[in-house]
Amino acid sequence: MATRIATVLPALVTLMLVAGNARAQEVGDATRGKVVYEQYCVLCHGEKGDGQGHFSQDTTPVPRDFRQGTYKWRTTPSGSLPTDADLERVLITGLYGTSMSSLRTTLNHQQRLDVVAYIKTFSPRFKTDKPEPAIVIPPEPAYTAESVKRGADVYDKFNCAQCHGDGAEGDGPSADDLTDDWGNPIVPYDLTEGHIKCGDGGPEIYRVFIGGLNGTPMPSFADSISPAEAWDLVHYIQSLSPTYPKNLTGAPNKPIDDFPP
Ligand code: HEC
Ligand code: HEC
Prior knowledge:
- This protein is mainly α.
- It has ten helices and no strands.
- The protein binds heme C (2 copies).
- One heme C binds next to helix 8, helix 9 and helix 10.
């Protein structure tokens, strides 16, 4: 058994590297993407990409206005554009608890790349700007009771309760007064749900404090939080619901961009 793993593992790693490189070179075609958009996205995100589609009034939160190039779920630092893989990932996971559902089985990888190329044409930012290099997510230490306890102190130290509340249910003293960059009221997420909106693993939670969520009051703590504190904080959040997957052994995490084509 041990030998089998020893021979299969390097082959797998090589395959993953090849797949990763292939992905980096792939680009979508905006002309084909427009066709996908008109079938699957326009009813919410609108003809002009302004978030004013037919159904836009019926959903909370409202569909994203793509014209500013402001995206929340990225592997890039606060304020940066997202990568194509970041945008594709949203189409794969969907956004939990919102009307933006997963298109993993509806669209294939090429269609997802094409529609990503098309939505980028709504914002002039993508012509003049490039996504900044990805934030660094150091290896996750094991999830332990001690780490959770330290994480509760980190939650206090950075005053997350101001918005998310003492019990992290999204009901802190500032919760009722927040708006997003588009002028819509926005609520701090209830972290006891057992799911965040985009992805559920440790690295996805980690990147939220480091990258912040562009266009929302959820700030980046990149300049003040240490990697050890950030991982303790991830574990504290995960302790709030049995639903969050937990890394009990400290095994290497899958990179955020590593999803099946
Ligand atoms: C039923 C309505 C609906 C449909 C259909 C829909 N979306 Fe969305 N989408 C939303 C909503 C609502 C949000 C905002 C969620 C939030 O910010 O919490 C959103 C957000 C997004 C975001 C922003 C993610 C980020 O990181 O900020 C992208 C990208 C996106 N949608 C792409 C698409 C594409 C491409 C399609 C079609 C293939 C599509 N959506 C179809 C409702 C929809
Ligand atoms: C100024 C208010 C504010 C502060 C302070 C704040 N948050 Fe948030 N946070 C928000 C808002 C608003 C959202 C919801 C954004 C959305 O749904 O678009 C959010 C969302 C989140 C999410 C969910 C992300 C997702 O993908 O769904 C996590 C995790 C989170 N915050 C953790 C924290 C932690 C930990 C701290 C302290 C280090 C913190 N926040 C401090 C306002 C805040």
